[in-house]
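Student: Hello, beginner here. Can you help me understand the protein record under this note? Any guidance would be welcome.
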Amino acid sequence: MARYVKSGTVNTVQEINSELEKIATAQDEFLTRDGEAPNEMKNTLDMNDNRITNLPSPLSLQEPLRLADVANVIAGDIILDSEIKVFDNIAEMKLAGLLVGQTVRCKRYYSGGELIDGLLYEIQVTQTVDGFVDHVLSNNNVAILVTESSASLEQFGAVDDGTDVSVNIQAAFDGRLKKITAKSGATYIARNLSISNNNMYFYAQGSTIKNPNGVNGQNILELNGESGRVFDLVVDGNNATDAGGTLGDASFAGVVLNGRDNKAIRCTAKNVGLLLTFGDQGGTNQVGVGFGGASDDEDKPNFFVDCLAFNNGNYGFNPRANVTILRGSTWGNGTNGLGNRFSENFHVDGIVVGVQYQGNPDTDSVGMTLDTESSGSTDFQKISKNCSFKNMIIEAQESFSISSTYYSADFENIHCKGDVLIQSTIPIVAPDLGTTSQVTVKNMVVDGTFKALNIQSLKIDNLVQKDAGSLAFLIDGVDNLYFNDIETSASLARFIRCDIVIGRGLSGSGQFDVSTIPSIDISGLYMDGVTPITDQKAIQLSSTQGRITGKIKNYGYPIASSSGNSGMDLSGFEFEGCGAADGTDQNACVNFKSTAGYTLHGLKFRSCTGRLLYATNMTGGSVVGFNADTGCTGGVSIEGSSDNFMYQSNVLLGTGTLRIFAGTNMTSTAYSNFRGTGVTVSAYPAGWS
């Protein structure tokens, strides 16, 4: 094919396309610098007296010989021979006195050992080698393993016969090759291994690295470089024992990801537990962590992906800053399935904590912990913040135990089959860190007690609490609580000592204690006590201001308010099947005592028994638009109220009694437009009608 020559002036699209086709055809005949095929000559190449420089030393009969090589050929230092010599093992090869340019192969690494593929070497001039994958010969020439970029642990001399091969595996991780493989199903005895080279990939293929017998705690494998990967590795801590009992060994871990952008994928850590015996105390304790570590760059976090941790001393997973856990599970660990301390940018997505495995019950005492030291500690600035936990199942008896001086955390799509505790250990503003804590909870199911304590901001979106004991739900000391859809089923749920509570969709069958809240706004409350009990209370108010609306069914006395409430608005509430059969004032559906400025507008009572409303010693406030149907058997009792108390436009159609007893400043405007059927007004101030 001739070189490309332009065909005159090109004016049309068709002519341009034709020229491009000619160029493409001509390019097929070019040689390329990077070897892209086709890249061979079809005819004699005439150098026209020009030189070809930088040729390598020849290795075969088909390669060009440089002038510098002629003397070596004459002296016998270079042998141009296409035959590959074969030796039984590495030691035999090293004694053979091989010459530069030869290619040789070994059947085994060790004399009498197993056959190993890939022990092919090129003999080169003297240079520094590691002595594990590349070897110095008896004549000081070296045998270099022929490979592009990978080698197996067996090519470094590692065996799986119970011998400690820590030095062999470490040599593989420290060497010139970027891809290391292990033999599928093999068990290597080793510990204190470190991958410090960047971009190192270790393909374990389901093999195990096991801590030596009788050796106390040292990490089994650490990744300390950048962009390293470990695939399909099992680490076995072998339940090491330390008779001396030193707490310094508590750092014993299976796989530790330090450095940055490192990943452990489909790995398992088991039996990483160090039994400490404290001599004078006579006690023992298990320490040890399945997976741990921290990235030193928040933009390049480390990842655990599809990893499993079980039967470890303290934690299944206990990483620190800039770590993400994607999927996997942890069960049967001594103290916690998942732990974290002083962490920033810690993220978990899709892990199962505390599951049973092969019929073995869960032994985790806590499913997950997240904590820091107290303000008096030197670690006070080591905080937990910007953490997220998603798509988790936590089967431990105590699902969460999260305590911190400061943290920000998000929880989403989590089923906790035990108790939950989220708290700031000190309700203060941490130095230079802003607010104490910020937490969001979305789509969480809790089979136990949910507690949130001393948090600056808590946002809840769809929380279902069930199967707890006497205390279902406790939010205490939360500055700003915002929620959508909270459902509880146990006997007591408490919102206390909160500054601001704003929410909608609150339901349950126990009791809500809403106390000491300066500002509350809850709409869509729905509570069903199922079977009315005389002393069963739905809502307890104390020193609370704001608004609550909703519906309450089947409670002995649904709403009780003690002294201190000011400006409380319960307008729009509906009550069905409520009230106590004894008809006492104390067990009224709505029981207000010594409360100022309350608003009860549009209350509806349906088939309620006993006293409907009992208000005493009220200062101000109004009952307007009250409506009780014919199924109500109780009445209304108002006594001792003062300062323009208003009771008007109300309907009482049942068989109850309206009782109004004198109080100061109760003017005629306080009692008007009242309608009732079979109602007796037992007493009211003079001048009322």
Observations:
- DSSP finds four helices and 58 strands in the chain.
- Residues 13-27 form the longest helix (15 residues).
